[in-house]
């Protein structure tokens, strides 16, 4: 049996929506999965080629085996994942979420009873430790995720297919390092400020209101502690906002995202210059928000 799995890029946090909001974009990682042969193998083309492990140490296979064990499904004798990766690793665009989901989804296809989005959400959220990226990657659009007891639950919002610019500087910043920079406790006023801005993010993205969204992206819980780790990022956000976009870190960084830029090329160049002023080169992505999530096709 062969299947193809496609999972989109995502941007999480969205300023004040720390660990609970994310949106999907039209940039995809995909894998053709062949349930035959012996052993577990991953072949990577594109992003991560020659870097990612191609054996059982790969996150895809770890997620695949984790899900099989959780569901009590007998592991097949062999599986090969042929991956076409377009989402850069360690970028703040959800590359690890796509790997986790490809493994989880592949496992559930071996028993149709479990091949559903809620199962994907619960297991991928457990593996990731948070479910914002994986939720947006599963459902598409804008997703608000929360945890009730031991289960993740979502609210889904269709969004306008607006453009966004993502500027990725050459900074090696792992999600672990970015999370380690956060304080254990925050002032009550900062927590209240973030909570008060959530409706502005939701409504701004749902309706395409860039001014409302810009106000919602103002964050006090994570960006003040992460921006110093990414030289030029604070200036890039400020420059994008000044040019009419709504800007924030993408995920934990190092990417900076500018939603709904008036002039995408001008905005991207101005943001890149902020990093260049700090001795950093950049990769630029011109993306579109989408209301489509992970897809499975039987070949």
TrEMBL record:
Residue stretches making up the GHMP kinase C-terminal domain: 202-276
Subcellular location(s) of the protein: Cytoplasm
PROSITE patterns the UniProt entry points to: GHMP_KINASES_ATP
Catalytic reaction equation(s): L-homoserine + ATP = O-phospho-L-homoserine + ADP + H(+)
Record-level GO cellular component terms: cytoplasm
Domain GHMP kinase N-terminal: 58-141
PANTHER family linked: HOMOSERINE KINASE, HOMOSERINE/4-DIPHOSPHOCYTIDYL-2-C-METHYL-D-ERYTHRITOL KINASE
UniProt-recorded name of the protein: Homoserine kinase
């Amino acid at each position: 049996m062969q299947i193809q799995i496609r999972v989109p890029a995502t941007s999480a946090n969205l300023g004040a929506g720390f660990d609970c909001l994310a949106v999907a974009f039209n940039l995809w990682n995909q894998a053709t999965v062949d349930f035959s042969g012996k052993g577990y193998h991953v072949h990577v083309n594109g992003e991560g080629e020659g870097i990612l492990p191609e054996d059982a140490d790969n996150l895809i296979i770890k997620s695949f085996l984790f899900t099989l064990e959780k569901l009590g499904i007998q592991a097949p004798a062999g599986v090969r994942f042929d991956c076409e990766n377009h989402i850069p690793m360690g970028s703040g665009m959800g590359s690890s979420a796509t790997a986790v989901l490809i493994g989880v989804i592949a496992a559930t296809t071996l028993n149709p009873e479990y091949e559903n989005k809620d199962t994907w959400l619960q297991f991928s959220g457990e593996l990731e430790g948070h479910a914002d990226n994986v939720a947006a990657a599963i459902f598409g659009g804008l997703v608000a995720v929360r945890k009730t007891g031991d289960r993740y639950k979502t609210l889904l919002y269709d969004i306008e297919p607006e453009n966004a610019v993502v500027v990725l500087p050459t900074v090696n910043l792992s999600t672990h390092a970015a999370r380690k920079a956060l304080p254990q406790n925050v002032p009550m006023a900062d927590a209240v400020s973030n909570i008060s801005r959530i409706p502005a993010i939701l409504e701004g993205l749902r309706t395409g209101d860039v001014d409302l969204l810009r106000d919602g992206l103002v964050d006090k819980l994570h960006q003040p502690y992460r921006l110093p780790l990414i030289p030029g990022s604070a200036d890039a956000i400020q420059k994008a906002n000044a040019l009419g976009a709504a800007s924030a870190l993408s995920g934990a960084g190092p990417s900076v995202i500018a939603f709904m830029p008036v002039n995408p090329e001008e905005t991207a160049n101005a943001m890149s210059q902020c990093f260049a002023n700090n001795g950093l080169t950049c990769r630029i992505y011109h993306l579109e928000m989408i209301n489509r999530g992970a897809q499975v096709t039987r070949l």
